[in-house]
Amino acid sequence: MSNVDEYDTLNKIQYVKFDQCEHMYHMECAISWMKQQLNCPTCRAPSTSVIDEKGNQIYIAIKDDDLRSSFYQAE
Prior knowledge:
This is RING-type domain-containing protein. The chain is of the alpha+beta class. Helix content is 21%, strand content 35%. The longest helix is centred in the first third of the chain and has 8 residues, at 3-10. The radius of gyration is 13 Å and the shape is globular.
């Protein structure tokens, strides 16, 4: 296990993958990115949701007047 993996495990950092391409990122990084862009930062595949480590899909809620509103988790 690398130092990064050990740090992530100890600090319970969650990973998510983009729903269309499955590239993986730290959850905070992915959400920060999606507040600015509705695509994968690696391949630019369009995406409005990510999938967490437990298989839960997390969507971005889009308002007509603001594409950078909020996130919600599907039940």
